[in-house]
Design a protein that fits this description.
This protein has helices at about 5-10, 30-40, 55-60, 60-70, 85-95, 100-115, 130-135, 175-185; strands at about 20-25, 45-50, 75-80, 120-125, 135-140, 145-150, 160-165, 190. By secondary structure, the protein is an alpha+beta fold. The N and C termini lie far apart (about 65 Å).
């Protein structure tokens, strides 16, 4: 036996090689992880959460960071839920929170207005037929890494689990979630 069992137990060899870290709550993922992933991304930054509002609150000078990314040629996209859509209203009834889903979406829209003049910024609402699939799974992509939140029952995003993934293989977890987000994006309705 070349490798002791204790070493074998620590080395990931299957599909879980793409799992960098898991958190029982999105809010348990340090904001520094988000900041590092956003900061290091050079080609593709894609926020495919239903509201995306929390990033504006947790990342210092986030609008300027995005502006610099765009100026450097990075593709920056936001996929949002429709603040006036039926799924949004349904989710508000489920969550029963003072900071409603539509308000959280509007926070992001207002924040995006501040950098709307930046060339290359893209924003879409998920299509009505995709809204149910969008509201139940958030995918945040930073080049070859992702943060993914599967939303649980009546819980808001910060109370749902989060997976930090790094692309290692074709067709792995990273690609599966990236393809989901890209499919929603392909049918999305441009935000005007």
């Amino acid at each position: 036996m070349i490798w002791p069992q204790v070493v074998k137990d620590k080395i990931k060899t299957g599909h879980d090689r793409e799992l960098v870290h898991s958190y029982p709550y999105r809010s348990a993922c340090p904001s520094t992880v988000w900041g590092e992933l956003i900061g290091k991304a050079a080609e593709n930054v894609f926020f495919a959460g239903y509201t995306n509002y929390f990033v504006w609150l947790e990342q210092p000078n986030f609008a300027e960071t995005l502006r610099r990314k765009l100026e450097a040629g990075c593709r920056v996209r936001f996929l949002l839920g429709d603040p006036d859509g039926a799924v949004t209203r349904q989710r508000e009834a489920v969550e029963e929170t003072a900071l409603t889903v539509s308000t959280r979406i509007r926070i992001t829209l207002q924040s995006l207005e501040g950098i709307a003049e930046s060339e290359g910024l893209e924003a879409r609402f998920s299509a009505p037929e995709d809204a149910t699939n969008h509201v139940s799974l958030s995918v945040f992509r930073f080049d070859e890494q992702e943060l993914v939140t599967p939303h649980l029952a009546r819980l808001v995003g910060h109370d749902s689990p989060l997976l930090h993934l790094r692309r290692v293989e074709q067709g792995g977890l990273f690609d599966r979630f990236a393809e989901h987000a890209e499919e929603l994006w392909s049918r999305g309705i441009p935000v005007e």
